[in-house]
Amino acid sequence: MSPTNRTVVVTGIGATTPLGGDAASTWEGLLAGRSGVKPLEGERFAELPVRIAALAAVDPGDVLPRPLARKLDRSAQFALIAAREAWADAGYTAKAGEDEKIQPNRLGAVIASGIGGVTTLLDQYDVLKEKGVRRVSPHTVPMLMPNGPSANVGLEVNAQAGVHTPVSACASGAEAIGYAVEMIRTGRADVVVAGGTEAAIHPLPIAAFANMMAMSKSNEEPEKASRPYDTGRDGFVLGEGAGVVVLESAEHAAARGARVYCEVVGQGLSADAHHIAQPEPSGRGIAVAMQNLLDDTGLKPAEVVHLNAHATSTPQGDIAEIKALRKVLGDDLDHVAVSATKSMTGHLLGGAGGIETVATVLALHHRTAPPTINVDDLDADVDADIVRDTPRALPEGTIAAINNSFGFGGHNVVLAFRTV
Amino acid sequence: MAATQEEIVTGLADIVNEIAGIPTEDVQLDKSFTDDLDVDSLSMVEVVVAAEERFDVKIPDEDVKNLKTVGDAADYILKHQA
């Protein structure tokens, strides 16, 4: 199908996060500056150097019927809950075809996860060792496969234009949304359900991340552990949950009279080619992604008033991102209200791009930038205007916002949104 | 002590309720696992494993395909239980 370069808009949002079981309660938590980080209780976490995480505020097992939940990895449970919310929020009342506003062959789904069904894999290995071959669940493979969340969301809404799962560690959710935008731009679909999910709070991933020296060990003060831009930051805090948006061509949204949150301006992509896990310290690759965004979409730095930073609370990564912002935006960075919402939600890995896109869309919609908490002593190298402690109003008129996501492997994904 | 057919159907109803969420009273002898009880081929493996444990019986994979209805399963278990 020939490229059409159609305008893409956001018509629905959904989320289940450490701050709340839906997008509204998550947004409320962000504005309140509430930390979702909690101690990890239980013997299996007792020996770990890291015993904190941002657990989902609402357990998905309390939301989904048990026969359904038992066949889904926790990451797919989160994705399905967020997707159902986004789908209803967009004004669809049934799956494609049954709701005649969208036909199945014009609907796609792109949901990503950084690690996939890791808890299913590990739990079923325990079953194999402790109870034997016969007891390993026949649902194990569909549960652990990384495309499981996307496939289950696709089944839920009857998406037949294509169901995809880009994987790029902590950039996965953002890459999924970028991929969805391209599906609509190129004419493959009119509507795409897109986002990211993650459920990796288990002793093994925590031990592994901790041994990389990537995680905060602030076990005594969980709510203070995630502190992007503060001089005392010592690594990220693992979070879980999902964020999903419904993207739609502007003409399709207009034809059905849909409420439009904002336009998706587009994406900028790059790769560091520097190290498998270390950030490139000058922010070179991030700057390339941002420049690609500006060049490809015509977005003007003067329009950008808000940025939801990747800022995971690691010593190197937070500064590399700021350097890239200054390099590309120049003096225009001075009018950008920068928010590091991971200070409250923790880091959802592949889910981060999903929930932070929801946060960015809501920031434009409500013209309010959420705060960054725990910046008690701002790092002198943070040469940007950080929104600290309380929300900040964004200007009137047409305004734009950026959501950054970067992943192990050197993947850089920059998404931009604009009010309509 | 071997279970009676009635006890087996009650047990299967509990298992199908746990796995597929079907009310126990709907699990009757003439009901098809796939067509009536929302038990797909993967979930059928779970039903079989749970039934094996509950009734102390072995149901080899090659026999599972013949268990179309609750009645088929109950008869099989009745005949093969230890």
UniProtKB/TrEMBL annotation, chain A:
EC number annotated for this UniProt entry: 2.3.1.179
Keyword entries, A-Z: Acyltransferase, Fatty acid biosynthesis, Fatty acid metabolism, Lipid biosynthesis, Lipid metabolism, Transferase
Catalytic activity, reaction form: a fatty acyl-[ACP] + malonyl-[ACP] + H(+) = a 3-oxoacyl-[ACP] + holo-[ACP] + CO2; (9Z)-hexadecenoyl-[ACP] + malonyl-[ACP] + H(+) = 3-oxo-(11Z)-octadecenoyl-[ACP] + holo-[ACP] + CO2
Ketosynthase family 3 (KS3) domain mapped to chain residues: 5-419
Cross-referenced InterPro entries: 3-oxoacyl-ACP_synth-2 (IPR017568), Beta-ketoacyl_synthase (IPR000794), Ketoacyl_synth_C (IPR014031), Ketoacyl_synth_N (IPR014030), PKS_Beta-ketoAc_synthase_dom (IPR020841), Thiolase-like (IPR016039)
CDD domains xrefs: KAS_I_II
Pfam family, one: ketoacyl-synt
Pathway: Lipid metabolism; fatty acid biosynthesis
Main function: Involved in the type II fatty acid elongation cycle. Catalyzes the elongation of a wide range of acyl-ACP by the addition of two carbons from malonyl-ACP to an acyl acceptor. Can efficiently catalyze the conversion of palmitoleoyl-ACP (cis-hexadec-9-enoyl-ACP) to cis-vaccenoyl-ACP (cis-octadec-11-enoyl-ACP), an essential step in the thermal regulation of fatty acid composition.
PANTHER family registered for this protein in UniProt: 3-OXOACYL-[ACYL-CARRIER-PROTEIN] SYNTHASE, MITOCHONDRIAL, POLYKETIDE SYNTHASE-RELATED
Family: Belongs to the thiolase-like superfamily. Beta-ketoacyl-ACP synthases family.
Protein name: 3-oxoacyl-[acyl-carrier-protein] synthase 2
Organism: Streptomyces chryseus
From TrEMBL, chain B:
Domain Carrier per the UniProt entry, residue ranges: 6-81
Subcellular localization, as worded in the UniProt entry: Cytoplasm
Key words, A-Z: Cytoplasm, Fatty acid biosynthesis, Fatty acid metabolism, Lipid biosynthesis, Lipid metabolism, Phosphopantetheine, Phosphoprotein
Modified residues annotated as O-(pantetheine 4'-phosphoryl)serine in this record: S41
SUPFAM superfamilies, alphabetized: ACP-like
InterPro entries (alphabetical): ACP, ACP-like_sf, EAL_dom, PP-bd_ACP
Post-translational events: 4'-phosphopantetheine is transferred from CoA to a specific serine of apo-ACP by AcpS. This modification is essential for activity because fatty acids are bound in thioester linkage to the sulfhydryl of the prosthetic group.
Record flagged with keyword Metal-binding: no
One Pfam family this sequence matches: PP-binding
Pathway the protein contributes to: Lipid metabolism; fatty acid biosynthesis
Domain of life assignment: Bacteria
Main subcellular localisation: cytoplasm
Family statement drawn from the similarity comment of this UniProt entry: Belongs to the acyl carrier protein (ACP) family.
Main function: Carrier of the growing fatty acid chain in fatty acid biosynthesis.
This protein's name: Acyl carrier protein
Origin organism lineage: Bacteria, Bacillati, Actinomycetota, Actinomycetes, Kitasatosporales
